[in-house]
Amino acid sequence: MHKISFNEWKNSMSFMIDDEFDNNFLKSIENLTTFINNNCSQFSEHNLLSNFLTQNLEGVVPLTRLRCLISLIGLSEERLKRVVSLIRVKFLNQEFNTEWSTKQISNLIIKDDMFRNLLVDFFINGRNSIVGEEIPLYYLQNFKLLSIDFINDLSNFNYVERILNDGEIQDKYSNRVGTHIETLIKNKIDSYNSVTGRNVSYEVMKEFPLLNKNIDFLIPSLNEPKILIEASYNITTGSGQSKRADQLVDIYSALMKHNANHRQNQIIMVNYCDGFGWVGRQNDLHRIYGASDYVINQKTLDLLDGILDAYI
Questions:
Q1: Whole domain around residue 145: which residue ranges?
Q2: Distances (CA, A) of 127 to 69, 76, 144, 173, 275
Q3: Residue 243 forms part of a structural domain
Q4: pLDDT at residue 262 in the model
Q5: Range list of H helices, 168-221
Q6: CA–CA distance, 264 with 273 (Å, rounded to integer)
Q7: Model pLDDT for residues 101-113, shown as the tens digit of each residue
Q8: Are residues 37 and 165 in the same domain?
Q9: 182 burial class (0-12, 13-18, 19+ CB within 10 angstroms)?
Q10: Please, which residues bridge with residue 230 across strands?
Q11: What value does the mean pLDDT take over residues 106-130?
């Protein structure tokens, strides 16, 4: 079993293509969209919007309600955090070193009347609120909860569905893809067992004491691993990829030391990397290639059959 070349690996990088997965992701927003359609009439009145943001009814928790609302008025979660930091400094006289998460903000909306009233007034009245006086107009372009036409738009399923999908309210698409990659690998091992009649086992996301780290796949088991698989999918590029490469280089170094001292119990490292975000970070990808016994991705996943043949 040979390791494919770096260029073969790099040139086989792709977007994750699975229409069934994508369609299920897009459909996951349908119930939430209908919920917004049915409740948008509450958004223009202070008390009703306060109730909307604090209630836990119809299976939609306050955090999700808040995330939906700010997405609909064009205020990202990052900008919401800046607005809340302004409120904490200017109106609540707080001193702090870190911002609140969206979940913390939602919890305080429920618990603190003053905080909730300031935010609800801001959401409804925009620049004509005491908080909005401190906010650039650029942030407030879609603060239209007092517009009848805008509320009518929010009663339109397709209009709201598009906004909620663009805002990735249910989950980040990239997060879901990362989880789905694990499913692809599981399915491949299961298919291998079905075709060959073998019964290759595996364990998923278990802490491996040798490395003091959770490993995505340990084959056949945590106690007697012969193959480790780590999986990564990146649509965009960022410094996190360099950290990921650092981590994988450290893992491989530890495995090489182990293998040198345990020649009868060798452990090999397989890295699954995919997505054009990795093509954009080829220095990091080169480092991962060097820290791998074998490399695969969605288009070369069939190579896993040969790896299992050779080592299990």
A1: 25-169
A2: 17, 17, 11, 33, 41
A3: yes
A4: 86
A5: 173-196
A6: 29
A7: 999 999 999 999 9
A8: yes
A9: middle
A10: 271
A11: 96
